[in-house]
From TrEMBL:
InterPro entries named among the record's database cross-references: Rossmann-like_a/b/a_fold (IPR014729), tRNA(Met)_cyd_acetate_ligase (IPR008513)
Statement: the UniProt record of this protein carries the keyword Plastid: no
Gene: tmcAL
Coiled-coil region list: none
Family annotation (HAMAP family): TmcAL
One GO cellular component, as annotated: cytoplasm
Organism: Mesomycoplasma flocculare ATCC 27399
Name of this protein: tRNA(Met) cytidine acetate ligase
Length: 317
């Protein structure tokens, strides 16, 4: 028997340690597989730590096996990310998954997934309608789901968990999902907590602040990020004709011209503010930036193991 955790570990922190310990305690007969993103993330970021480092630290804290989630799934929208991860889990005959959840209501997520699966025509019609209105794909998906179920899923872990369960239901995978309630995070009202979100940790790291209360990892500047490579991205966009940029994966609908128009923004944050819209989320834009940086026309053919960045040396655990 085996149980899978799907993870990015960007960065690995105390919440992940808690998840591994909880899984080992509550599923003592199961081997723990971590389906782990490689050197890049679902939101189009460069991972703070490389795949090898993340694998070693996960094994140190309780994982039994690590399986790399291929780049072609790891750097895509949530539904594609989930599709790839669950396909791998099924192929390895792993019969359980566990994921963090704000609601901790796995039964409701299953019910919503079944409604989604049984009402594909209505869902797809609502999705198409919302996209025509200019909604981003995530917002259009949420709109379509609410149309057929009367419910919204708005919290990030529940959204991703729902995508996992959708894959189980749609493909009739012999996999059972379990949820783990997210622990109360550090705040002014809860200063003794040793758990924070990965987003907050990345902010602390970017500000060169200590994360020792929240993670066993240590980072030195400069750390790997899209912001770190933004000058290189500027150079590529300035020097590459728009028609060549348009051949890059995810570059469509004239977004290459929008990039050229705003490429003189002084940093990544201001560039994202200038180009994002109702249609294009920051994550969608960051994936496009990532693909331009590494000249990716087809993510299925991109070998991320050949990418070696100096900033990955500025990490330890």
């Amino acid at each position: 028997m085996a149980i899978a955790i799907i993870a990015e570990y960007n960065p690995f922190h105390n919440g992940h340690i808690y998840q591994l310990e909880y899984t080992k305690k509550n599923f003592p007969e199961d081997k723990i597989y971590v389906i782990l993103s490689g050197n890049f993330t679902q939101r189009g970021e460069i991972s703070l730590a490389d795949f090898e480092t993340k694998s070693k630290i996960a094994l140190k804290y309780g994982a039994d096996f690590i399986i790399r989630l291929p780049f072609k799934f790891a750097t895509q929208a949530a539904h594609i990310f989930a599709k790839g991860a669950l396909k791998i889990i099924n192929e390895h005959k792993i019969n359980k998954i566990i994921f963090g959840s704000e609601s901790n209501d796995v039964e409701n997520l299953y019910n919503l997934a079944k409604l989604w699966n049984d009402n594909q025509a209505s869902y797809n019609a609502s999705l198409k309608y919302a996209l025509k209105l200019g909604y981003s794909f995530p917002k259009a998906s949420a709109f379509a789901l609410e149309e057929i179920t009367g419910q919204k899923i708005v919290l990030p872990n529940d959204i991703l968990g729902f995508e996992y369960i959708k894959q189980i239901v749609a493909n009739n995978y012999p996999i059972k999902a379990y949820t783990l309630k997210r622990k109360e995070e550090y705040s002014e009202k809860n200063p003794n907590s040793k758990v924070v979100s990965a987003t907050y940790l990345r902010q602390l790291i970017s500000e060169n602040k200590s994360i020792s209360q929240f993670s066993p990892m240590k980072f030195q500047q400069p750390v790997c990020s899209l912001a770190y490579l933004y000058p290189e991205f500027q150079k590529i966009v300035r020097e590459t004709p728009a028609e060549i940029l348009a051949k890059t994966w995810l570059i469509s609908e004239g977004i290459e011209n929008l990039f050229k128009k705003h490429i003189d923004q002084p940093n990544l944050e201001k560039f994202l503010s200038a180009v994002n819209s109702k249609r294009y989320t920051n994550s969608r834009i960051k994936r496009a930036i990532l693909y331009i940086l590494f000249k990716i026309e087809d993510p299925a053919k991109f070998d991320e193991t050949k990418v070696k960045l100096e900033c990955w040396k500025n990490q330890e655990y």
